[in-house]
Amino acid sequence: MIPKKPKESYYTDHQWQAIHQKNSNVLISAGAGSGKTSVLTERVLRILNEGIDINRLLILTFTKAASLEMKERIRKNLEKAIKNAPNPHLERQLELLDVSFITTFDSFCLYLVKKYNHKLGIKKDIQIGDENLFKQQKKRIIQDLFQSLYEENNEDFFAYLRTYTTKSDEKLEDQLLFLAEQLQKYDLDETYLDTYEQTYYGKNYQEKLTHALIEKVTEFKQGLQKLNNDLSLLALESESGQDTKTRLENEIASLLSFEDLTSFNRYTEEKESFKITLKTSRDDRSLLKPYLDSFKDLLNLYQPYFSHSIETHNQTHEKNKPHVLFLLSLAFRFLASYSAFQDHLGIYDFLSISSLSTKLLKDHEDVRNELKHFYHELLIDEFQDTSLIQNIFISQIENNNVFMVGDIKQSIYRFRDAKPELFQQKYDLFKAQPTAGIKIDLNQNFRSRKEILEDINTLFYRTMSPRIGGVTYDGLQALVFGNQTYEKQKANQPYGIEILEVLSKEELEDHEKTYKTDESQVFSIIKDIKDKMASKYQVLDSKTNQLRDVKFDDFVILIDRKSPFRLFKAVAEANQVPMYLHATEPFVSNDDVLALRSLLSLFYCFKDASYGKDHFTHDFLSVFRSYLFQINDQILHDSLNALKNHSYFDYKKVLSNETIITTLDKLNALNVLSETLSLDLFLIEVTKTFNLLEKALVLNQIEAIESRLFYLIDKAKSLSKLNFGLLELLEYFSFINEEDLDLDFQSSSKLKEGMVNVMTIHKSKGLEFSICYYPMLDKRWSSPNLSNFYFDLTYGIIMPSFDEGLTDNIEKQLHLAQEKQEMISERLRLFYVALTRAKELAVIVANPPSNETFINEIKSDELVDESIRNNYNSFNQLVYTVIGHYAKKRIKAPYDEIIYNENYKDSIQKQRVHFKKEQVFNYKALSYKPKQIKKERISGNFVEIKDEQTLKDMALGTLIHEQLERLDFCLPLKNQIDQLPVDNNVKKFLYKLDRLPFLHDLKEAFIYQEYEFIVSTDDQVKQGIIDLLIETNEALIVVDYKLKDINKPIYFSQLEGYKDYLSTKSNKPIRAYLYSLIDGVYLEV
């Protein structure tokens, strides 16, 4: 029985019900800003007031930060309640709070596995191991496994390699790792192997596949019918236009008449492409083109499903069976070895702990019942982010006592295995069967102004649906205005969503300016912020509930990627706008971590001469150039020269710099301690000996550096238990570097007062801001990962069929379609999260998409056609499909010559390492290729080519070269290459870049592409273009791209010319390389 709500209560009726609903599972669907956390903590207080101890509540969150915040909120509620009315029971709960189970899923699973270790047959003192160590070990296990298969002459193994790999088993290694991880995530044991053939090769499976294809036929016909209906309303002037329209209508009618899959198979085989030539008037052509494009898009989308008949598929699918069953059995064999390794050492990864905890509950009824009856209630925050294995875990211990809070519209963690469909399944079940549980909708928003909520609802009413978005955006999902203070405090200024459209290329040319879209968007935002500050835009103060002048920290810029951060910072600094970037560097790339690693490595050089032979020079330079000592290059150069003909052990006899000698003395003095101290204690000793924290003051981030240092010491302590010494630690860091990995270090990132905050949308979740900007919405979303190997529960292992070569199968098309739909759905939800951060004004910074299909100037209450939403590839397209609703909110960004300039490049220049004082050399990347001049060129001249193959190679080389200019060499290359708009034949040449050692570890480097220089003397002018110039702390690196052959004397002299020029501008060492675009090989000159 729910008690009557007091008149003075500030809770809504639905919130009150959520707090007091008893004796049932409860699902709270809580929209953004609806006070879900307040409801959850108040429910806990209500339960405690009824005499239940807090240690009989299991409160699960998804992050440590969330569990700490939840604990503190409950603490404050308890302290407030005790202050108002002293209560011994509540005072006792306050004492128990710190040992209560307000924790993450992972931590609770670890607790259970430790507590019941005897039932699982594992060690008691287990711990979570290092993720990077596990990656190393997995590779070793697979190598051992493959070795045994080679030695056994295993025919299944060799057959698999012959069919699916070329000259290497690396691809099989990747597939095996992926499959094993999926089996763990779906909580599948060897019974899955036993039933696999029956599940995926029997008659039932064929029927399931046929049903899936029939659904695709239905979708296809629905799209065609919608297109036909729209086409019928089209009025054309010319006879030729009407004729074209009739032909298109006839083609659609023909497809709509098909009744079975065979008809579609035949159509696909007979008609490779549909062509209609638009020979009609210009006006009719512009009217017809969108319909023709839509028809072709539909054909391209659905034809792959009908490219093979079911019969043909079944034959090739059957041929795959031996390979699939072999791979599956190998995956379980690998998991057994990996499990044995973890059991032996007593260290586990989190996924294995999750698997062990579900196994514990499934296999041991006594444990299951004990937990069921001990916990009065299970409370789960952010339930929309639950994974499959977490849901299985909860199902084992629930007892009609689970309280779940979440919002499917804010599920944005698919990369962490979140399954939002689990939330929706529960919602639909409780809606249909109240006896299974109670669902309560909290949709009243107390965060934002009415105008914001109305504009957000307008957007998602028309774009979000169960298939695309994961939910019907209806009256129960729409945000309802709840904060009446906003209505009392209002200024005469715009609220809600604004569409700030940046100046087009043509409009900028009117001002004799040329800027990239990114630059224009940043300029527009900085100008808008400055204008609002100058005009004293009014915002509601959250403390006084009164209007006040806007401050810099009322603004936030939310982006779905970090790559534009540096541009924002530079333009802001150039225009005196204080700005803070919430961009976390990879842990291992921080200056303090690099310096400590180099210091330890330099120490080990004196411990092991063979190690020092390979590492001393690099470590010596890294240590003494770092912030720890800041010794200039000339002294270091002279010191290394002095040591050239001596052993570095003789440094006292040879060197003269006191700082270097004293430092090396201290390192040598640590030798004895390194033999007696554990790894963590040795790190502490190094920290004290070299005053690492005191010296870190120059970096202006002492708290962060202290946190990282303590994390490293703690990491060293755990590694010591695995018998790690200093050498193993250094090798561990090398592995992380080589594999482009990082350490799992979570740093806190507080909002900066007095500054504009810039962060990713994911980082903004749970936060709120008065004014939000959303730039870079035209950036294309990442496509689903294209490979030849997938896994899902519906179709099992998905891999190519072999029939005179490898060919894709229907399952791949169905899987990729589902994956694409899930990706688009999550991007819609991500935009929902972004927009709901805004309290008063949300500024969408946009430019109209080039594809007219996505621009709808008409105000319509209908859901945007699914065929259009299925092809969204940017937030920009999403916005413009409903742009008609924002006609009065579209604002053209004004031009301002003070802001629209290149002064910001000076801000970037400040961060660079300068060369000689008397001769500072600033590189400048040019976006165009200069015309040839009739002077002496250092770069190569053009020659006439007549050979056909060479012409083809040149065309390919040009295309590769164009793509190289798109890459940011400071960032990992593979993901960038994956997204390039070129076919895989071109990408395979680009992937070879990862093998080039001089392109590794460039996070802090400055990159200049197509750098042109001219050297003038009294009697001659020399001109050259350096394809790629890299400036690191240690050197200048020149890379010259060549088509194929790189062993030509003329090329060597060309690079010598580059080096001669650069040597006049910098005293840094210069390394020069020739790189063959076709062969993927390099040569140092």
From TrEMBL:
Q: Which PROSITE patterns match?
A: UVRD_HELICASE_ATP_BIND (PS51198)
InterPro entries assigned: DNA_helicase_UvrD-like_C, DNA_helicase_UvrD/REP, P-loop_NTPase, PDDEXK-like_dom_sf, Restrct_endonuc-II-like, UvrD-like_ATP-bd
Gene Ontology cellular component list: cytosol; DNA helicase complex
Catalysis: reaction(s): Couples ATP hydrolysis with the unwinding of duplex DNA by translocating in the 3'-5' direction; ATP + H2O = ADP + phosphate + H(+)
Residues that coordinate or bind ATP: 30-37
* One protein family per Pfam: UvrD-helicase
Q: Which UniProt keywords apply?
A: ATP-binding, DNA damage, DNA repair, DNA-binding, Exonuclease, Helicase, Hydrolase, Isomerase, Nuclease, Nucleotide-binding
Biological process GO annotation list?
Answer: recombinational repair
Q: What is its EC number?
A: 5.6.2.4
The answer, when asked if DNA-binding is one of the entry's keywords, is: yes
- Can you give the residue ranges of the UvrD-like helicase ATP-binding domain? 9-449
Record keyword Nucleotide-binding present: yes
Q: Which GO terms describe its molecular function?
A: 3'-5' DNA helicase activity; ATP binding; ATP hydrolysis activity; DNA binding; exonuclease activity
Q: Where is the signal peptide?
A: none
Q: Give me the segments passing through the membrane.
A: none
Q: What is this protein called?
A: DNA 3'-5' helicase
- What is the protein's species of origin? Acholeplasma brassicae
Q: Quick one: which gene encodes this? A: addA
